[in-house]
Amino acid sequence: MPTLSEQITQQLRDWISQGKLPPGARLEEIPVAQQLGVSRTPVRSALQMLSAEGLIEHRPNRGYTIKEFNLEEIMSAYEARAALEAAACRKAALNGVSTEMAQQLRQCLIVGDGLLAKGRLTPQQELSYQQMNMDLHRLLAQAARSPQVQKYIEHINNAVPQASSRVMRWELDLGILRRSHDDHHRIVVAVLERDAHRAQQLMEEHVYFAGLLFRQSYLQQAAQHAAQQGQKKAPQLRR
């Protein structure tokens, strides 16, 4: 069972990946401890752990701030994740999966189908879908039965959370989310049918597509921010 500091570390990672703690935001022990209802000691340990991972930065007289990754760094992480998760699916298909693992994978698909059948998702349903997505990708990594591959995938997810399976682009329309979940179905079928080449190819394309969506969203947000800054700096015309 994870220690309290490990639980806090994961909670902070989730907040960062979800955008609740944006790049450049300060992280201070006392406010975080108060928000989580814990003492400062496990929070201090969590911040030190995140700093060692490179997810947050410590600056003299400023404390900790959320690291800001540029687009190139995030896309490189997506590329690495695509290759690793594709390799995991290939291994899972070659080795075959247990009956229990197959049931868990199918259950993830059922949960996703049920949520997307409802139409527009509520905030709570968004969280449920996000959890399903995380669970499915985690199970497929476990199914490879390769601790090393699983470790590398986990490292990327933690080091660059913007490129992890924890990130969902909720501004996208339902059709794109359904396409993504259709990918999940095809990947699971390929793994269960032990079609290693197809499982590898499908997962690589799935993560690559997620990266393209992130890039599109990132550039749109950057353009909007630049436009807003330009409006603020524009001189006022005299009447």
Q: Mind explaining what this structure looks like?
A:
- The chain is mainly alpha-helical and 239 residues long.
- It has helices at 4-17, 29-36, 40-53, 71-95, 99-116, 123-143, 147-159, 174-192, 196-233, and strands at residues 26-27, 56-59, 63-66.
- A three-stranded antiparallel β-sheet has the order 1-3-2.
- It is globular.
Q: Let me know the largest β-sheet.
A: 3 strands, antiparallel
Give the termini separation: 68 Å
Strand content: under 5%
Overall pLDDT confidence = 90
CATH class of the largest domain: Mainly Alpha
The total count of helices amounts to 9
Helix-and-strand structural type? mainly alpha
Specify the CATH architecture of the largest domain: Up-down Bundle
Identify the CATH homologous superfamily of the largest domain: GntR ligand-binding domain-like
Uncertain runs: none
Helix fraction bin: over 70%
Tags for this model:
three-stranded antiparallel sheet; Arc Repressor Mutant, subunit A; mainly alpha; Four Helix Bundle (Hemerythrin (Met), subunit A); 71% helix; 239 residues; 2 domains; single chain; globular
Question: Short description, anyone?
Answer:
71% of the residues lie in helices and 4% in strands.
List the helices and strands and how they pair.
Elements: H1 4-17, E1 26-27, H2 29-36, H3 40-53, E2 56-59, E3 63-66, H4 71-95, H5 99-116, H6 123-143, H7 147-159, H8 174-192, H9 196-233
Helix pairs in contact: 1-3, 2-3, 4-6, 4-7, 4-8, 4-9, 5-6, 5-8, 8-9
